[in-house]
Amino acid sequence: MEIRGPIVLPARREDIELQTSDGLRLVGELALPEDTAPVATLVTLHPLPTAGGFMDSHIIRKAAARLPALADLAVLRFNTRGTTSPRGTSEGTFDGGVGERFDVAAAMHVVRERGLPRPWIVGWSFGTELALKYAREHDIEGIILLSPPLHRATPEEVAAWAGDDRRVVILVPEFDDYLRPAEAAERFASIPDAELIAVEGGKHLWVGEAQTARVLTEIVTAVNPGALPLPTEWPENPEAS
Questions:
Q1: pLDDT at 61 over 70
Q2: Which letter does DSSP use for residue 162 in this model?
Q3: Helices first, then strands: H and E counts in the chain
Q4: Integer CA distances (angstroms), 12 to 105, 160, 231, in order
Q5: Model confidence over 185-217: pLDDT tens digits?
Q6: 125, 114 Cβ separation under 8 angstroms
Q7: Environment class of 232 (CB within 10 Å of its CB; exposed 0-12, middle 13-18, buried 19+)
Q8: Burial 134-145 (b: 16+ CB within 10 A, else e)
Q9: Angle 90-171-70 from CA coordinates, rounded to 5°
Q10: Dist CA 192 CA 208 (whole Å)
Q11: What CA–CA distance (Å, rounded) separates 211 from 214?
Q12: Which residue(s) pair with 171 in the sheet?
């Protein structure tokens, strides 16, 4: 069966709750490889909830649906405060990236509590702002930024990653609505070691199987390159969801 669209490959999936230090309950899911221990962990941060972003935003949902099976990765996804998805509604209200600092910390607490290995934070759009602002506070291997708009992360917060041992991988779509490759190169120039990848033909929402496959491949290239190339076929009949 061809791996594309809504296909869900085998994994151990568990609905979880995250508890923030300011007293909120957030809803989420942890997906693990079906028969083996994960070799690394993706902590995913979704796009802007006031523009429809949530833990089921398609790139994050497909990462959870495919990468435990294809690349032996654990994938943690969750709704930030005040965000609703079919999984449920996280307590609290959207705070423009301020109170969400506690949401990132709650996710990293789950990583520590579960003993999940080699965590990376993967942010998409609004999620990239949270990664840039708060990921340095945590024990991670790096951050992967998908379509960063740089609306909320300040130049000082970006520059704070300069000289950090942890990797900064940035995927910038050629036709992004907010930040395109040439401007991104200027605005991330304060991080000399950042890996900026301009994606030809890419758009902010990464719509279509070709763009989805490119994003997932770049994530695996950073986190577990030994799993490449990612298969495009699966021998069994996975669930479509």
A1: yes
A2: T
A3: 6, 12
A4: 24, 37, 20
A5: 999 999 999 999 999 999 999 999 999 999 999
A6: no
A7: exposed
A8: bbeebebbbbbb
A9: 70
A10: 32
A11: 5
A12: 146, 197
